[in-house]
Amino acid sequence: MASISAVLIVKNEAARLARCLEALRSVADEIVVVDTGSTDATEAVARAFTSRVYCFAWRDDFAAARNAALAHATGDWVLSIDADEVVDAPEDARTLLLSFAAANDPTAVGTIEVLSPTGPEDDAPASRDHLERFFRRGAYRFAGAIHEQLVPTGGGAKRAASTGVRAYHHGYAQSQDAPDHKALRNLPLLLRELEAQPEDEYLIHQLGKAYYTLGRYAEAAHAFERALDAVRFTPGGAPEGRFGPVSRAVTTDLVVTLAYAYVNVGQTTRALRLLETHAAIDHPGTRRADFAHVLGYVHLMLGHVAEAKAAYDKSLEYGAACEDVLGTGTFSSEYHLGLLSEAEGDLAAAWEHYQTSLRHKPDYRPTLARCIDLAAERHAPLPHAIIAAADPTALERVRAEKARRR
After folding, report:
1. Do 56 and 34 meet the contact criterion of CB atoms below 8 Å apart?
2. Mean pLDDT of the chain
3. Distance of alpha carbon 377 from alpha carbon 373, whole angstroms
4. Which one of 46, 153, 266, 307 is most buried, by most CB atoms within 10 A?
5. Does the reported pTM lie above 0.90?
């Protein structure tokens, strides 16, 4: 049976690290922690879980730090994880990783599903990424000072496949004005890398995401535009960047987040033109619930009720399997369809959409809040179907919040 090393680089993560390491105890045969200059209790927390704790002088290069950590690993396979991530169902995760190792040769890289809240609010949307994190020790190394990537040590092609493991990431669940926001840390590194590689569409895309996370939407839009300009789109074909194919996930994120950035700077009509242009091309990045969802949102902002309904209906056709941001093909689109049904005066349809939204996510705050308000506006109790679908604790919490504001 293969052995597994969990490998982390950390800095000032004392508040988060214990949860991460507690889960890893059931996943890995050894845990390797490399501290890059903490001034809090990070090292002490790490030593409570593992004796394999080392120091590395930070030099503004994530790949260098991760490769230094790899040098201390002794397992057959390596799971690269971050201190602000927690592996879900650790015992099951170990079984999944061992099965992956047994079924694949050393050229394979295993992806894990990472769910990340996009803000500190309880109802902040969660994004879903599939990240390359599990690999045969010695077969891969990290490259890139920021948003580092795995590259084969001997050259050649890389083959990625899912491990089935899921982790929850909390690193970006911060308010936009947080002084220690991780995007503030990333910005100077991204800008420095772009000085050396000014045409790299992936780095430009990441720059846009950093600006967007910080609420700097005009700068984000400019970066996303630059990244899109570097990509060649052909009808029905796979997009090509300056350095090779651009993944479906990246193209979806580029177009969708640029549309939201335009809306946030008051350029909603421009967002619609962007989405209609890409819908006409029909590249893989458009065939997602996220794309249909943002199209519905833009039409909603412009007052196009029929078009918005058609777009949200399309997002529901794609469903949960085609969501990058959770809810775009399920509970969030159902919620927006409820709002649109209200606008048309069809309350029966509105209640049905809200009920379906809660069946997908019983604690979805926007739906709970709207149901409470709608019942109050109608001077009627909440429908039994809504109460049955809702999470009781979440429902009472939203009721209490509303009562405090009165």
Report:
1. yes
2. 96
3. 6
4. 46
5. yes
